[in-house]
Specification:
The chain has a single domain, classed as Metalloproteases ("zincins"), catalytic domain (Collagenase (Catalytic Domain)). The mean pLDDT is about 95. Helix 2 crosses helix 7 and helix 5 (about 110-120) packs across helix 6 (about 125-140). The chain is an alpha/beta fold. The chain has seven helices and four strands, in the order βααβαβαβααα. A four-stranded mixed sheet has the order 1-2-4-3, with helices on both faces. Helix content is about 50%, strand content about 15%.
């Protein structure tokens, strides 16, 4: 079993009143996603017997909008952003240097999360788990730019969420 470490930053205090037991929920989601991917994909760095580190920022629409504008050229908030270290030029070198593998950063916007959950008629917890799973998959190198990639990533999300007793978020 790959050891995962989760560092949570609370940049929006309203998160404390929005989801109970956020640390345990987040830890379970990250661990489940990592273990599922490890068991179903051959990703070299996951076989190095080093802990995997994930940085999670629980934030708001304003911060996510600013990050989107700065890094993606989009002047609007989105539900989740992921900044994967696997995309960095020196990622391969860092695998030899450090005792752990820092996967990157995930930022989730509370207002967008709440709005989307209400629009979809699903619990805030279930939607949060979906977005966090989505973010972890990005940190592990998954993407959804091409249709085939998107289908592969969505199938992994569905299976991981099923293991967490959350129904398929893509069902109509």
């Amino acid at each position: 079993m790959t050891k995962t470490q989760l560092s949570i930053s609370l940049n929006e205090p309203a998160w404390e009143d929005s989801l109970d037991d956020i640390e345990n929920i987040s830890g379970a989601v990250v661990a489940q996603a990592v273990e599922f991917v490890r068991g179903n994909e051959n990703i070299d760095f996951m076989n190095l017997d080093k802990p995997l580190l994930v940085n999670l920022c629980l934030s708001d629409d304003n911060e996510v909008r600013t990050l989107n504008r700065e890094f993606r050229g989009m002047d609007r908030p989105t539900n989740v952003l992921s900044f994967a270290n696997i995309d960095a030029e020196d990622f391969e070198q860092s695998l030899d240097i450090y005792d752990e593998i820092e996967l990157g950063d995930i930022i989730i916007a509370l207002e967008t999360l709440k709005r989307e959950a209400a629009e979809k008629g699903i619990s805030l917890r279930d939607h949060y788990c979906h977005l966090l799973t989505h973010g972890v998959l990005h940190l592990l190198g998954f993407d959804h730019i091409e249709d085939e990639e998107a289908e592969h990533m969505e199938n992994f999300e569905i299976k991981i969420l099923e293991l967490l007793n959350i129904k398929n978020p893509y069902e109509e």
